[in-house]
Write the structure tokens for this entry.
Amino acid sequence: MAENRKPTKKDEQLEKYTVVDKGKKLTTNTGLKMAEDEFSLKAGERGPTLLEDFHFREKMTHFDHERIPERVVHARGYSAHGEFQVYEPLKEFTKAGFLNDTSKTTPVFVRFSTVAGSKGSSETVRDVRGFSTKFYTDEGNYDLVGNNIPVFFIQDAIKFPDLAHAVKPEPHNGMPQAASAHDTFWDFIANNQESAHMAMWAMSDRGIPRSFRMMEGFGVHTFRLINDKGESHFVKFHWKPVLGTHSLVWDEAQKLSGKDADFHRRDLWESIENGEYPEYELGLQIIKEEDEFSFDFDILDPTKVWPEEEIPVKIVGKMTLNRNVDNVFAENEQVAFHPGSIVPGIDFSNDPLLQGRLFSYTDTQLIRLGGPNFHEIPINRPVCPFHNNQRDGHMRQTVNRGQVSYGNNSLADNTPETTPPEEGGFEHYHERIDAHKIRARSDSFKDHFSQARLFWNSMSDPEKEHIKEAFSFELGKVGEPSVQKQVVDMFANVSRELSDTIAEATGTEKAVGTESQVTKASPALSQENTTFTPSGRKVGIIAADGYNADAVRSAAEKLRAEGAVIEVISAKGGELTGSDGTKLGVDHTFLTGESVLFDALLAVGGKDTDRPFQHDARYFLLEAFQHFKPIGATKDAAAWLEAENMNDRPGVVLEDNAADFPKAFAEAVASHRFWGRDIMN
Ligand code: HDD
């Protein structure tokens, strides 16, 4: 934990459950000190092991039971602790305490995840990312269980098992792992056309984020905010990352999957360890109750965004992630989120996807965490008192003293007692419902292509290219021509340009349908309009003995001042000696590092680098160049760029050509990618 960090209420609670084993005596679980832990009890030194060996049996049995079922979706995830603070009281909209008291910091625990892959799968695959936040408020836990994409594939929760089955590895051969590029996923998409909008998002750069720190988060559904007069407003929740929303490129993402399957968790862990705390602002889009039907989409439909230009995002607070987990199993694996964990001042809408989720999350924890007492696991405990008449079950921790575990009672003065709404008791919003019981979809949910087209219209040219490439890749991996054809036909409703590209790439006949006539765009959807900063970017300096110490010092100082992280790459580990005799520690060798691990490269070289060094350096630089990344080169290394025909190209900064080289290179790093660069020649 950072030294200047004040423990939150949650930290203090967790501290009571935290155990440090270092320096302690080894005991059994019953506290018996053991004299021996390396040899089982045998009948003779060369004889069989005896059943009497309780220590062996206890140790082995515990090990045999160490695993629990992984999450059925979102199995691969990583978490951090932090704090949330609201900027201004939101009394007009909600009575939730943590959204009104500006002096209060609310402890939070956030888990980021991929959806499709198993617990051990790679993190940079193309997928939706989960973004779950547990606020430990004084009025109970509030869980915002969202994604990094603001819409969903389906409109009704009853289809969720179908969606998950379609995207998971195909059952007959267990392939592919953590990927949507296969027949059953695209067969599902084509035959459930409400998925069109989200499929566009998943195939866009949003499907391959650069970092958990550079991802938006969305509550997706429409919720309600309730104020102290009992008035309701519809709301959508947003997390806006302070570093902006940024992505990998596909070739880079695939290579990262092999070079560092832990790329995203390492990035999160390291940034928190280095004190560069990830920050996200909370945003609210609010619609008045009387405006429910004022839009050209149904606000209960989870496949629709509320365009930010029409319904602005009001920024209301900030979350800072400032403490890494102490134990991945105890915290990241055992945390249980639930969209139904709410506090007074927040309520549900009738979105049929949300309504179904309200059942599924408790149910899944019962099998995953083994029984009904998972709320007692330290990471899940509220920081406020909790009392009721629930008792017993597997692994019950609390010792509930007393005779009474029922209501109504007279023996305990009818306690635990309920709390009237005026005093903070939760009461469901009194929505009036007058309807037939029916299994059907509302007609207002049946426009599947207008917003998919809105998304397409909102993309910049490079973003459109990426979407076309992603569809071409994914459909190229589909083996069944009839599925490819159905997808080509389906996306002709969104864009002929896109559909024709998929047809071309897969050798499929072009579609005959007409595309959506929507011309509207929402600039807020394009990542080109996000924040660009060198902060949080990782710059690799390729250097050898005799490197130009002045050049390295001035570039590193400038970049560090702007918040970038600098790491040194060379042929061998240890230390390099610069032109002025100063030393520089090597962080990666050409063997252990990789071009894809960096956002930008600075080629510095050194004195008399040999051919193998130059070969490796050029390989690193060429790959960064092909991924559109900023590249800088001092005089000593400029020849490597020339040799690969990379000098004099957008985003390539040469010391010889720049009046202020550190500044010019830092500016290039702030631009992140140079899409205008022709990487073909
Ligand atoms: Fe879900 C996990 C997000 C629809 C059923 N979901 C899960 C997690 C996230 C989401 C972030 C991981 C939580 C964690 O880190 O532990 N899910 C969403 C979003 C949805 C959504 C944003 C649509 C807007 N989910 C959804 C539906 C259902 C589920 C419609 C079922 C009716 N989701 C689950 C689950 C999981 C889960 C099976 C698996 C592990 C868990 O709950 O705790 O119950």
Observations:
- Residues 641 and 647 are 5 Å apart (CA to CA).
- Residues 71-74, 77, 111, 113, 130, 132, 145-147, 152, 157, 160, 220-221, 302, 335, 337, 353, 356-357, 360-361, 364 surround HDD (CB under 6 Å).
- Residues 448-528 form a domain with the Hemocyanin, N-terminal domain fold (CATH 1.20.1370.20).
- The radius of gyration is 28 Å.
